[in-house]
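tool_call predict_complex ligand=phenylalanine
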Amino acid sequence: MSLFDDLEQVYQTAQAALEATESVAALESWHADYLGRKGAVTLQTRSVGQLPKEDRPAFGQRVNAIKQALEAAHEARARVHKRAALAATLAAGAVDVTLPGRPVAPGHLHLTTQSLRQLYAIFAQMGFEVYEAPDVELEAYNFDLLNIPAYHPARDMWDTFWVDPSSPSTSEGIEGGDEARLLLRTHTSPGQVRVMRERYPEPIRVILPGKCYRYEQITARSEHQFYQVEGLAVGRDITMTDLIGTIKQFARLFYGPENDVRVRSSYFPFTEPSIEVDTNCTLCGGKGCRICKYTGWIEIAGAGMVHPVVLDNGGYNPAEWSGFAFGFGVERPSLTKYNVADIRYFYGNDLRFLRQF
Ligand code: PHE
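tool_result ok
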């Protein structure tokens, strides 16, 4: 066999071996075996000295051609392997875009916040703006200026959490915090005098939402922390009819047009006359249950015409001005609206309850 035949033989073996490689690693060792420094094709160049002179150029050219052809074939084969490797990786980490998405749980607004926002929207329709007054309040605003002097028996209506004024975190921003006694507001009514003193001599139509605190026993229908939304309108010719109309309109929009409202006469030191507003207990359909104390009605608001003493304390001359005020509980209306059996669920942080709304 001539050296030329040997060369062709090596070429064929190399091609067959290249075809047989199945991985990038196998390709590398193939390259070493045939085209490396001691590879079979490389070694062929050494045979050139054994050839007669006239054959040497042809042999050299053939070896070079074979080397180039094999390098090109190697590159092509490498591309095939790389593509296969990439396809395998993609298949292993494949994302099935047809699968349904995993739900993200971003949480949602607390039932009380939802109710508050509904209340704001309803009163906004009737021209009431939102005014915010402080939770930590002066005794004077919570009681005295609302016509409830110290030792007045009406103070018994609001069992109070008193605030230690020496605590730096509480007295900040409350004027007269040193001499005057501080408390957690027992109702949102103290905001009435704050708004009047700020707005005089403008007519007023505001709601004052906020948390109230009472040192009371916790039961199915009363918590010691709860929200109220106070309403206050002060003007030249405001009458009881305006008050009742406003509350009726509120009840229709909040509970639905079929809802009934009942007004009873009542007593609050800061309104004269005073009323209480009830609505049907939707929990029992009026038959009577624990929540409505077996009356079929549930109290939703205290209200009345602003007492002349309070108007005066706010700077409005009661001979020229009149006004109405009301105070809604926020949790209790939701009790009947959503048929919640116990007010303690609101701030019990039980997600099984909260997630229902
Ligand atoms: N502040 C009263 C309460 O908490 C409710 C009320 C507000 C009554 C405004 C009359 C007028 O019980």
